[in-house]
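Work Package 3 (structural annotation) set out to generate three-dimensional models for the target panel prioritized at the project kickoff. During this period the team completed the workflow that converts sequence records into discrete structure tokens, so that structures can be stored uniformly alongside our sequence database. As a representative example, we reproduce one entry of 368 residues exactly as it appears in the project archive.
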Amino acid sequence: MSARRLLTLIRREVRATFRDTFTVTILITVPLVALLAFSFSLSTEVHGLRLAVLDADGSAESRRLVEDIAASKWFVPVSLPSRDAIDRGLRGGTVSAALIIPPDFSRTLRQRREPPEVQLLYDGAEALLAGNAEGALGGLVNASGARLVRDQTPAGGVAVVSGVLFNPRLDGTPYMAAGVFGFVLSFLTTLITAVTIVNERQSGTFDQLQVTPATALEILLGKLLPLGAIFALDVVLMMLIAGFAFGVWPAGSALFFILVSSFYLLVSLSLGLIFSATSSTPAEAVQRTVLFSVPLVQLSGFSFPIGNMPAVLRWLALAFPATHYIRVSRGIYLRGEGPLTLLPELLVLGLFAAVLVVLALRTLEARE
């Protein structure tokens, strides 16, 4: 690969892009509009959520409480041995909420002095789930507690003490703002990139590139790097707008987030080039992108929590790179997680990037 030829291709792509004022406007404004449009909370239905249960009492009363919760079908209780296991489950997404029953639960019931307390924990980084889970689980516990103590304590019911591990105010804006990065970098970048090569092929400029000494790798990088730089700038602008307009700043490292987002652009841009190189017309390239991106956005966790989906869809969601990027985005923004904590998701994204870059390169070579 010749660095001189690559720089020439990059300069050519930059000049061609900035000559088209409409394209430049789309590249800059659409991501910002998407951030402003989607930065609000979406309600979700509580059904079949995995509930971690730490029953320190182990009495008939505490078991009855858990059974009543399971009978609602809203939650699926999962017994865990310690508070550390609960924290790991909430961080890893294997459970959506947690119920801690203290060791004096049954004794307090029998003393008839005051209602016993149980603690409900939920992940504030999943604000949509947390808000609904709190209301649903609190109602179930109170209803079950009322039946348990109807003839035992005049206070009636069981008091629920809730604690938030992340996003203490349960503000839906940080949740959505962090997810919008995944929407923009997954759907919009692919859509915009998808029409580049097919437009050049129709105008004849791409055929001219193929007869030059430039290799397929140089052409690929010449396309990816300028667009990647523009979308990396979009990421920075979106961060600033989210911070100043909504007060949403990354809880973790902003630099780490920018680096991860810039790397993730390889996935979306490569996918867009594949759609473009295998399409005959711009309309066909757009159709391919939309058909692929609609389920990608719906199943990635951007709008609807993956933990609330059927098991088959949860497994299918793992096949989309946007799922893993949105997890990383919300992990950095809401939980302040770093590279070590997010390493499994980063490795998956690296695998997606390697596969798609190779496929894009092979597709361009096949077109020569």
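The chain is about 65% helix and 10% strand.
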